[in-house]
Write a structure and sequence with these properties.
By secondary structure, the chain is mostly beta strands. Helices cover 9% and strands 47% of the residues. It is built from 2 helices and 20 strands. The radius of gyration is 30 Å and the shape is elongated.
């Protein structure tokens, strides 16, 4: 089994390994052994490719691959579409075997196989052709340098897994035309995790929700969680963390937030509100918090009441049974 590990600038993975390494352009994508970044007249002037084009237009640019090691490295150079990961909404790119429908299909480097000498760099031109019927708005992708070597690593259960590492320089393309920012908060759910006995532990709740970018521009949403109890009492208002800084067009991600100290006996509603430039959306869910002990006691009382009523009904004599008889 092979796995592609694509390392891009905004992802936290492997960033600690960058300390003490040779200088690279500010914001360049690198993993400590090689870097990929746009060609620029000044160091760090272009951390990403920020491009704009009309439908049907062709752009040309150049990407640089830099080798930080003492041995030559050979890469497969390809363009890929970007997406938000399901795990945390981070920016990620497709593997070379996956279908390419956007930037991954439109951008074509002059070479798809590049050997970079030790401590050297190679700059490769590429062309990006926007289809005449391309949707206006934002399209994200990357030019990816995939190491041809397969590294062996141990997985759970002792199985060997082959890992191919990659580094990509982001491409942010705006296709000219009408833009329509839009956002939705979908499928808000609430689940409680209360201790069995009151006073024996903290009561928490898990709020899950889906952020869906339904428009054609990239959004940087801010999300606020609000909880109200009976009679509109405010129980909680807070900004949620872990929200992606870039929610790409048409992407949908599932996120969660934990509410520590959630009420144990309450009826109310939680509301998740997401805002970005020119857009606002909300979704909510009702909740009923009851301690397990209260639920159990209520169930026992109901069961006991049912038994007593049944016994009274059975013991009550039927009319005319063993009663006085009228004389004829």
């Amino acid at each position: 089994m092979r796995k592609l590990s694509a390392i891009l600038p905004a992802l936290p993975i492997l960033l600690a390994a960058l300390l003490g390494l040779p200088a690279a352009p500010a914001g360049a994508a690198e993993n400590g052994e090689w870097a990929v970044y746009p060609e620029a007249s000044q160091l760090g002037a272009r951390p990403y490719f920020h491009l704009s084009a009309d439908p049907g237009a062709t752009l040309t640019d150049r990407v640089t691959l830099a080798n930080r090691t003492a041995a030559p490295l050979t890469f497969r150079l390809y363009a890929a579409d970007a997406y938000n990961t399901e795990r945390d909404g981070g920016f990620a790119v497709r593997a070379p075997e996956e279908p390419r429908r956007g930037v991954g299909a439109w951008a074509v480097p002059d070479r798809d196989r590049v050997t970079v000498p030790a401590h050297g760099a190679v700059t490769v031109p590429y062309a990006l052709t926007v289809p005449p019927d391309a949707e206006p708005g934002d399209h994200a992708g990357a030019l990816v340098a995939l190491d041809e070597r397969v590294e062996r690593t141990a997985a759970r259960g002792g199985a060997a897994v082959g890992v191919r590492r990659a580094v990509g320089a982001r491409i942010h393309l705006r296709v000219t035309g009408p833009t329509a920012p839009a956002l939705a908060v979908e499928d808000v759910t609430w689940s409680a995790d209360a201790p069995l006995l009151p006073g024996t532990g903290e009561s928490t709740a898990l709020i899950s929700y889906t952020l869906h970018n339904t428009g054609n521009v990239t959004l940087s949403p801010r999300v606020v969680l609000r909880a109200e109890g009976l009679f509109g009492r405010t129980l909680l208002t807070r900004d949620l963390r872990g929200v992606p800084s870039e929610l790409l067009p048409r992407q949908r991600i599932r996120l969660t937030a934990r509410w520590a100290g959630a009420p144990r006996l309450e009826r109310g509603e939680v509301t998740v509100t997401a805002t970005a430039r020119d857009v606002r959306a909300s979704g909510g869910a009702s909740f009923l918090a009851l301690p397990w002990l209260v639920v159990l006691a209520a169930a026992v009382l109901v069961a006991a009441a049912g038994v007593l009523l049944r016994l009274r009904y059975v013991r009550r004599p039927a009319i005319g049974e063993n009663g006085p008889h009228e004389r004829s």
